[in-house]
Amino acid sequence: VTRVRRPSPQTLAVVQALAEDPDRWRYGYDLCTELGVQAGSMYPILIRLADRGLLETSWETEHVPGRPARHLYRLTGAGRAFVAAMTPAGTRVAAAKAAASISAGAPRRGRPQFGGA
Amino acid sequence: MPVVVLGVLLGLIGLMVRRPGRNGSDLPSHIVAAATNRLPAGRQEWGQAMLAELTHIPDRGRRWRFTIGVLRVTMFPPVRHRGRVLVAASVALALAVTATLSAAHAVPSLAVFVAVLGLLLCGYTTVVAARAPRPPRTVAYLLVCVVALGGLAATVTTVVQIAGAHPSATTDHTHVFSVLLALIISGYLAAALTPRRTMRHARAVLWWALAATATAGTVWIVIALTTSTTAGGVTGLISPVGIAATLAASIGAAATGRDTAAGTRAGVLTAILTAPIHFAVTMTTFVHMRHWTLTDPYDIAAYPHSGYPDIASYLLGDILGGNIIAGLIFYPVIALVVARIGAAIGTGRPGSSTRRIAPVAR
Lengths: 117, 362
Hints:
heterodimer, A: mainly alpha, 3-stranded antiparallel beta sheet, 3 strands, disordered C terminus, B: mainly alpha, 13 helices, 0% strand
């Protein structure tokens, strides 16, 4: 039996912020200032999201003289699906799908496993 | 006078905090660079990410807040194996509690020391389990681990020996020395055992430090066995042998790698490894002394009002405190200066630094 943990409110805030414009790459510190989350909380959240395949990371390609390239983040396909499932509307849809799959005799599929932050 | 020293120290710290360094680098960037260098190999990219992000934060206050956050991440990076960390922390805590209870029963004067040391080692074990580092599997690194653990064990055994033979010598009503000793020896252990990923010429550093430590340890043991100790004047708490070993290791490692950083690291590692050995050898020598006499006029006047039951306890307590402050706390500071000088001599480039900043991982 796999224990599924509900993500923390901060984690939900981060994924929702990333989901607002899912194609846009975001900086870590910008997310900190936007959400009022300290770096000590933000980076563990980003690391866990990346570990679970919900977050895509990349390095800036535009070179700013005298400054190192910055790390960029955006949701993966799985991350977007996760956000959809986590929002109230998404939860209702997921519940309806789960109910439909049970009534159709299909095997149950759990939510993406999440360790929490 | 202490107020002046404190003022100067605070002023220097203030200058370090405010003044940007060469290339625009300031204290937060140095702290973040040092902290992220110690991240586990699997998290190095995140360390580079946080370091790069800091360069884009202009406001000083925000830079410091970001740095504190980075320190938190580097101390306790997200773990992949929670179960393993919980098991390690639980076992370490159980051992610490057992040791404290045993100490409270057998050697009550050391209960606080054992409790603090146990908790610190428990914390260190938890951090190591959480970070899951991949230590270098080399003979030299294993030997360093053995020597560091042996030094810690020797120090604790010596203090327990003193507490057993002269309990009032280890009575510490303020608990300051108990906490200081626990902090310093657990810090030595952590410093010796934590592998530095970016350290260049690691083999030369480790082997030079081991050779210097073995030589110094042998000399101290020979001196302890062949000469008679007198408690009248406390023998050098900061040993010239230790300083010579530090100097030799730093010169040797710096000359081998043509690298001042490697030389400094070898010298500091030598000091970290030799200090507990010197402490244990010196204090063991004193514990086994049979005849104690007061020769210093101050001691002769102070002893009757000191409350100690005998001269041995009075002098041992004094020597123990002096050895903790001079031999374990001040010694590494002096050794760092000596190591820097040795490294400069070894490379023939006084004041030069060959430190490199790791390239940004892509």
